[in-house]
Amino acid sequence: MRKRSKQILILLGSPREDGNSTRLAFAFADAASRNGHAVRSIRLPALDVAPCDGCRQCWAKASQPCVIRDDMDSVYPLLRAADVLVFATPLHFYTWSAPIKTLTDRLVCLTPQFKRNLKGKTSVLLATAADERPAAFAGLTATYRLVADYMGWKRLGEVRIGGLAAEDDVSRAGRALARADALGSRL
Ligand SMILES: Cc1cc2nc3c(=O)[nH]c(=O)nc-3n(C[C@H](O)[C@H](O)[C@H](O)COP(=O)(O)O)c2cc1C
Asked: Residues 151-167, buried b or exposed e (16+ Cβ, 10 A)?
């Protein structure tokens, strides 16, 4: 039986426009598109997204997602409409990049205790680093899994590729792009 077409939202966290994590994301996207899914990607560093200021008004009045007016106004509907959220990030100081951290903090208004939440989505982690040691990804992996589990997201899979310093190192890194493609093909 043919699978239902899914909405896939790729959150690109790299400051590089055509860097390693973005190339991994596009390999994932190509595979998902081949399977008939609708893919949209957002370059988070290009957006104007303020950090959560901890005002907690979203906790007081759950009808108001967030009182900060910035580019999250257009990202929230995309997040809510998506079936699959893909976090594509370079490792920055052993965790995901600042734009992804800023975005995830702004999800505090959509956590499972609220009627309006992001429960039931599928999530994916695609990450690249300069460090070749698998242990370099430990903090990022733990963060992603804790966030996904807390938010009520299924975890489809993770691709972590180390040893990538220059912008297009991923293209020469053995089966890196094939692994992202294989994960995208599972949708
Ligand atoms: C601000 C900054 C912090 C970084 N921190 C780390 C790190 O903690 N560990 C590591 O292995 N690589 C680190 N890197 C290197 C990148 O993770 C690596 O080159 C990655 O492949 C870049 O992906 P991109 O091309 O998608 O930006 C850092 C790079 C930058 C610019």
From this structure: bebeebbbbbbbebeee
